[in-house]
Amino acid sequence: MENETFEKSLEQLENIATELERGNLSLEKSIEIFEKGIKLSKECSEKLDKAEKRINLLVQTENGLEEEKFEIE
Amino acid sequence: METKIYSVSQINKYIKMVFDKNTFLYNISIRGEITNFKAHYTGHLYFTLKDETSSIKCVMFKGHADSIKFKVNDGMKVVIEGQVSVYESNGTYQIYCKKMMPEGLGELYLAYEQLKARLELEGLFDESHKKSLPFLPERVGIITSKTGAVIQDIINVTTRRYGKMNLLVYPATVQGVNVSETVIAGIKAFNKLNNVDVIIIARGGGSFEDLFGFNDEKLAREIYNSDIPIISAVGHETDFTICDFVSDLRAPTPSAAAELVYPQMSDLVIKLENYKNRSKQAILNYLDRKKEYVKRLKSSKLEKVPLDIINNYRLNIDSMLRSNENKLHLLLERSKSRYLQSVSKIDALSPLKTLTRGYVVAQDNDGTVIVKTNQVKSGDNLKLTFIDGKINVIVE
User: Fold this and answer.
1) Sign of the CA dihedral with B204 first, then B209, B215, and B218 last
2) Cα–Cα distance, B5 to A13 (Å, whole number)
3) CB A2, CB A30: distance < 8 Å
4) Most distant CA pair in chain B: distance in Å?
5) What class does CATH assign to B8-104?
6) Which letter does DSSP use for residue B95 in this model?
7) Domain B138-262: which CATH class?
8) Is the pTM here over 0.80, yes or no?
9) Residues of chain B with CATH 2.40.50.140
10) Distance from CA of A64 to the nearest CA of B (A)
11) Is A33's pLDDT higher than 90?
């Protein structure tokens, strides 16, 4: 699922930061993983931004299980 | 006859010995109501057990008291199990309790303990089978009562922590005889729809009896077989149910479950920013270092060395070529002059040259060149070589 990639992205981001800080890579490789890191952090931010608050209730109807908006009582 | 006189401690010691030898008092179950309950800070419990007409002191040491699964209060009717013995220093007898159960729940407890032991033996609680929770769930399924404080608490906590949560509530009966049935239906529904990443089974605190519906074998197996990870948040921290043991994770309270499934949004944002900034700073530093290196290389001798070396070589080669050329010329000159000298020497030594100046070479019959007069006597034949030919002569 996508949330796994979020966690992995976060992990990768940390690794990239660490790797860059170590500074042992070639110039090309450094630029490459830096660009990857920026892309990842953008994706992660977007994912967090675009999420919406949703609370639904599963209800049993004649047609089976259906979702309806959860009304806080 | 003399009466023997004993000390107080002697008699108390004797009485204690009599009590302790008695097998009936050694392990006995007693029903009663709790009064004067005191939980000492050391963890020991002191109380009195009474019925309508009588009472007896009780003590329960920490080791045993820790196994009590419910909250003990004055007025509670319980069945205790322990030994009646004597406290020597004040001569009182009391019950040293080993177990305590709410009265009437003895059978339920027994059933719970037996089921727990059986399922544990079967491996339903094995850590190796437990699924890990998603780091950031897309959607969270909650099986609980749609009314009441529990769902409210969960919504509050997730709103505070994450804000943009996505919850799907399966309304279930969490009290009474239908508990396992409706909770099982919820687990089945979520697994069938496969639209949540994690399920929370939630219920607020309650008595052992209230929570007993969660000590159900069918429910335990349903939880065990769920493809979606399940968090059990049934009752308070001190309450344990089979549902807790078999679930992938036990949360002490429903609010705690909400904290377990949703990370703090601000933490995530900070982490993201942090990694991004670290990467940026690192790449900038890296580039600066590289630039600095190139600059240093340019200005340092290091960079000049190769050119210098090449130039040096060039110079060397040139001078070598030049000096060799000279040498060659010299050699050539020398050879030339030596040749000329040789030629003139040869020229000078050549007899032909001498002959042109009017000299004659005389030879005897054997061809020996005659240099002196004593080499010949009169009558010898000589051969004279002139520049243009030879003649024979006779010496007089």
Assistant:
1) negative
2) 87
3) no
4) 201
5) mainly beta
6) E
7) alpha beta
8) no
9) 8-104
10) 10
11) no
